[in-house]
Amino acid sequence: MFPSSRLDPVILEHLLSQHRDLHARILALRAAFTPEEVPASPAAAEVRHLLLGLRERLAEHFAQEEQGGFLEESIARMPRLSAAARGVVAEHPRLLAAFDALLEHVPVRDIRPQEWSEARARFTDFADRLFAHERSEHAVVQQGYNEDFGIPE
Ligand SMILES: [Fe+2]
Ligand SMILES: [Fe+2]
Questions:
Q1: Cα 19 to ligand 1 centre (Å)
Q2: 133 CA to middle of ligand 1, Å?
Q3: Could you tell me if 43 and 98 are in contact, meaning their C-beta atoms sit under 8 angstroms apart?
Q4: In a domain, 150, yes or no
């Protein structure tokens, strides 16, 4: 059964807090991915550690979204959203595959400047894709409930 008019605030808060956590992790990675210099091994290992943590959270987050009924509930409320919602969910495996490709390109030792800047560029691309994904997701949920959650663009 769907709640009659308003989205369960507890469930919504859970979704938004996960998005905030992912954003914080991305920001930490941006800072750790030093732009100019090739890092010493410990700093590179830290980047890898942060990336692995993000990978784990992303997989959990996507699985919860797929099982949590958010998008389904939006569709039930507004069937014309179903293509958009399916499109958003279909991005999850692609985002994880892009992340895994990124991980393979992050060097840990004997790092050459070229390798590092390529890995950094891949990370920046990935972060942009993830943010675009979350924006589409917010749009679907927001339209489904016909409410403005005050989510910043
Ligand atoms: Fe998602
Ligand atoms: Fe999400």
A1: 9
A2: 6
A3: no
A4: no
Of residues 71, 69, 101, the one with CA closest to residue 88: 71
The 10s digit of each residue's pLDDT in 63-81 is 988 886 677 777 777 777 7
pLDDT of residue 112: 85
Give the residue, 13 or 23, on which the prediction is more confident.
23
> According to the model, what pLDDT value does residue 40 have?
75
Higher pLDDT, 11 or 43: 43
**In this structure, is residue 152 part of a structural domain?**
no
Q: Is residue 153 part of a domain?
A: no
Cα 136 to ligand 1 centre (Å): 9
Owning domain of residue 46:
9-144
What's the structural domain count of the chain? Answer: 1
Phi, psi angles (nearest 5°) of residue 118: -65, -45
pLDDT given for residue 151 in this prediction: 57
Tell me the two tokens of residue 25.
Answer: 């992790």
Cα(108) to centroid(ligand 2), Å: 29
Would you say residue 109 lies in a domain?
A: yes
CA of 138 relative to ligand 1 center, distance in Å = 9
Compute how many other C-beta atoms are within 10 angstroms of the C-beta atom of residue 6: 9
> Which ligand approaches the C-alpha of residue 95 most closely?
1
